[in-house]
Amino acid sequence: MYDLILKNGIIVDGTGSPWYRADVAIKNEIIAGVGKFAAHEGKKVLDIDGLIVAPGFIDTHTHTDIIATAKNDPENSLFQGVTTQVSGNCGKSNAPVNGETIDLLKRYLDAYTPKGIVLGWDWKSMGDWFDIIDRQGFITDIATLLGQGTVRLAVLGMSDAEPTKVQLEEMKKLVDNAMREGTVGMSSGLIYPPGIFTKTGELIELCKVVKEHEAVYTTHLRSEGNSLMDAIEEAIEIGRESGCKVHISHHKVRGGINTGLSRKTLAAMEYARGIGIDVTCDLYPYVAGYSQISSLVPRWATVGGVNAMLERLANAENRDRFRVEMEEGLPDWDSFIHFSGWDGIAFSSAKEDHSVEGKSIAQLAAERNVAPIDALLSVILKEKAEASVIIYGSSLEDHIRIMQHPLSMIGSDGFACSYTEPRLQGKPHPRCLSTFPRVLAKYVREDHVLDLETAVYKMSGFAASRFGFTDRGLVKKGLLADFVVFDYDKIADKATFASPYQKPEGIRYIIKNGVVLIEDNIFNGQILGKSVRLGKR
Fold first, then answer.
1. 97-108 burial string, b = 16+ CB within 10 Å, else e?
2. Which domain holds residue 368?
3. pLDDT of residue 426
4. CA angle in degrees (0–180, nearest 5) for 416-484-503
5. Of 125, 295, 354, 402, which residue is 20 to 30 A from 262 by alpha carbon distance?
């Protein structure tokens, strides 16, 4: 007797192969078979005639881990059909924790820790953190990358100095320990301090350790604008010299004069693969991005951490320098304001002054009758840099080209929030709440950028293979019974920049471990997710 049978489904199995009609039988959390089964063989039967059955989606890029020990039920990902998340991206992870630099680590992660959320910090290593997740559970399964920024911070703090040989060996040992504890790779965020202070050689040495564990190195590149090709070539060089698998996070092209540059970036990735360097990428289905407000600040101003940065920003003598550098950029630093303008960047979240949320820098400046630089710096100082921004100006042409490329998969770059108890202040980027339905509705059904099978592959089977998940990602006998069942004609993303807290439509069932958790947009409250440790499950 099977625990559950899905009858008469249209199976899109996550391999990219054409759909087919079949039943799916589930027993003891596992897919027991795909074929034809009689209704009397199941304890529970769902007749899903005409609906698509896909593997539970795997979100390759999230930051959910930062509050996961404090809140185990933020449902934004699950409602999109996501049953597994890869977190710890952009160089930011909760561990390793060094007691001497823990205050710096807390500030490093503050932008992803909503006001009112108190983390226990009762862990030291990634293994400790995994154990907490397994004890209390999580709404989805959650795998985690080791943050290179967190590792560097534990050893050098927020210094911009190069590590000594002893310090480099200490960092390599931390990487090795985290890999042994089950992290699925190492991430870097090379536009954020302390990642911005890290030189290529240091990254190569750390990635040699990642290679020993056959894990993956993911990177938020140093540039997505004028220096994008240099940044891509650096990532490829790291792969070549270390032997490590390389994954480009949220690949995009800042527009204007750079439009069309994805032809070269993708060609470089193809060439790298042709000579044995394993390179892939992900992207989210929006041309507007999101970042911490401190990413608008020139590199030199961030040395020493948040408090040192705030002191520099408060110095009136620096105002004109900040304005010029933000408007023009620097040789070693791409300014978001240079690409998007003061009217192309809007405040997304603030912990103190919510009146700024949803307004562009230019709009706030006009309201306050001050210069844009003064409006921006006033927010940074009042919020103590614990605010975020929406950044417009990426190239749609390049966005579509990257999405269609066979080396790309889907990641939301989202983090935890809730429809019933919002845990993000302000107006979070809609990618947090609608990434996967948007791919299916806009880019498959409406715009025909992708076909259905390719889209599902990019959101399931491809992601599973990239991060070493051998027990999920396909509708296949013997794998974990995670599914999203949706109506192809009705699936729709509803979250917008103005009104993000809207549930997707058209998803009929979301099934985790063979249990129906969401039916017609109603969540039954069961917490079934655990940690996913490389080589451990």
1. bbeebeebbebb
2. 291-391
3. 67
4. 45
5. 295
